[in-house]
Automatic annotation (TrEMBL):
Stored CDD domains: AdoMet_MTases
GO molecular function, one term: methyltransferase activity
Protein's GO biological process: methylation
Positions contributing to S-adenosyl-L-methionine binding: Q294, Y323, D344, D392
Name of the gene this protein is made from: rlmD
Top-level EC class as recorded in UniProt: transferase
Gene3D superfamilies with a match to the protein in the record: 2.40.50.1070, Nucleic acid-binding proteins, Vaccinia Virus protein VP39
Source organism of this protein record: Fictibacillus nanhaiensis
Listed name of the protein: 23S rRNA (Uracil(1939)-C(5))-methyltransferase RlmD
UniProt-annotated catalytic positions: C419
Length: 462
């Protein structure tokens, strides 16, 4: 007979308990243990002793809020952002930057402890590569537009709610994006333009998107509308030109769907160029309104240089750039390789990669549309065997079929660029169970003040 008896929860909602914070979680919350059960506490820092109030209880964990801190961490600082606690866009502004870098390394270590069988003494995780100036690093803002009484607001939805938080000055955004967004809000108010109401599905103006190029100072403004027509278009354009002469590309994107996605499929140029130009090192990129590009250009150079360091190419290697997108990582490595071959399932990305390679006169790069798990075996069958595979997958990690393909084709080295330590560790576990070993892992802080951490991990065939 099946036992249906359930254990009573150790903690109850509303209960106050003492807690010592041991580590930082992947969402920036402090982690403590009460009677061997894990408790997550937003705003808590490792090393702090406190009393907390239990807010949620689950079979294997609990969540709590801080009631009183008895022993503060020396790493606790006053968040400089006045809306830090309500906005939710950043999670760890209350920690000193050196502590952020230290704890991000530990987040990577935790993932490998949880999902792999590598002994911690044999886990070579280097120090996190940080920024000299960990503010004003984001080159793009996407702020939803709303209205409170007669005031036009634009910002982000507060964590776990549908309350729009107005953001006048985001400290992690490049100052140009703040300036342009605020002036566009004023223009929308002055012209009394109809703002989209998703509940009533009325109005037009949905989102203000601003992207700035750090190296060229070009600025692209995109207004996302729920209607085909841009309201009061001529007046709107005249005011943009008058108040924001620095805008070099003004675009309308049309999103008529009831969705949380920012962009719709239709994009129309209003004035100026359709693209802005940005540089990464010696490479130059034309960015259209919907083109993916790293949000932190300064750290992207450091990230790609770390990939190059770990790849350690001699000029004789055949390199695969899987999930290549527009080919940025492969082109970064091309001058050290015999040949680079990239693949992506998105045809437009491959077209961009070919154009980028041609524009930069990179003659040893080849790009093909398709899945890596199909193209890699095809190339091997044709006699082209890769020495190094570089992969930069989405947050969900590598496709299992792709990993099986790597195991079958047996490249000597794999450099894995990850934006999610958990899926990185899970994928690494599969690879080390099939003939590979981890050489080194380097965390890279692409998004200071947030809990997100990237990592570059190199695996070599035993």
């Amino acid at each position: 007979m099946r036992n249906t008896k359930q254990n009573n929860p150790i903690m109850k909602i509303g209960e106050t308990i003492p807690l010592l914070i041991k580590r930082l979680g992947i969402n920036g919350e402090g982690i403590g243990f009460h009677q061997r059960q894990v408790v997550f506490v937003p705003g808590a820092i490792p090393g702090e002793e406190m009393s907390v109030i239990i807010t949620k209880v689950f079979p294997n964990r609990a969540e709590a809020k801080i009631k009183k801190v008895f022993k503060k961490s020396k790493d606790r600082v006053t968040p400089p952002c006045p809306i830090y606690e309500t906005c939710g866009g950043c999670q760890i502004q209350h920690m000193s930057y050196p502590a952020q870098l230290r704890e991000k390394r530990d987040i990577v270590v935790q993932a490998f402890e949880r999902y792999t069988k590598i002994h911690k003494d044999k886990l070579n995780v280097r120090k996190t590569i940080g920024m000299d100036e960990p503010w004003a690093y984001r080159n793009k803002s996407q702020f939803q537009v709303g209205k409170i009484d007669d005031t036009v607001i634009a910002g982000l939805y507060s964590s776990n709610s549908h309350k729009l938080i107005n953001i006048d000055h985001c400290l992690v955004q490049h100052e140009d994006t703040n300036i342009v967004t605020n002036k566009v809000k004023q223009i929308i108010r002055d012209l009394n333009l109809p703002i989209y109401d998703e509940r009533k599905q009325t109005g037009s103006i949905r989102t203000i998107v601003v992207r700035t190029a750090f190296r060229t100072d070009e600025i692209q403004l995109v207004i996302v509308t729920a209607t085909n027509e841009l309201p009061k278009k001529e007046l709107f354009v005249a005011e943009i030109k008058k108040r924001l002469p620095q805008v070099t590309s003004f675009i309308q994107n049309i999103n008529e769907e009831k969705t949380s996605l920012v962009f719709g499929e239709q994009t129309e140029g209003i004035f100026g160029k359709d693209t802005i130009t940005e540089h990464l090192g010696d490479l130059r990129f034309e960015l259209s309104a919907r083109a993916f590009f790293q949000l932190n250009p300064e750290q992207t150079v450091n990230l790609y240089n770390e990939v190059k360091r770990q790849a350690n190419l001699t000029g004789k290697e055949k390199v695969v750039d899987a999930y290549c997108g527009s080919g940025t990582i492969g082109m970064w490595l091309a001058n050290g390789a015999e040949e680079v071959r990239g693949m992506d399932i998105i045809k437009e990305s491959i077209m961009d990669a070919r154009k980028n390679a041609e524009k930069h006169q990179i003659k040893n790069a080849y790009y093909e549309t398709g899945k890596a798990e199909k193209l890699l075996p095809k190339w091997v069958k044709e006699g082209w065997e890769p020495d190094v595979v570089v992969v930069d997958p989405p947050r969900t990690g590598c496709d299992p079929v792709f990993l099986e393909t790597i195991i079958k084709t047996k490249p000597k080295k794999m450099v894995y660029v990850s934006c999610n330590p958990s899926t990185l560790a899970k994928d690494v576990h599969m690879l080390i169970s099939n003939g590979y070993k981890v050489e080194e892992i380097t965390p890279v802080d692409m998004f200071p003040q947030t809990s997100q951490v990237e990592a570059v991990c190199t695996l070599v065939l035993k």
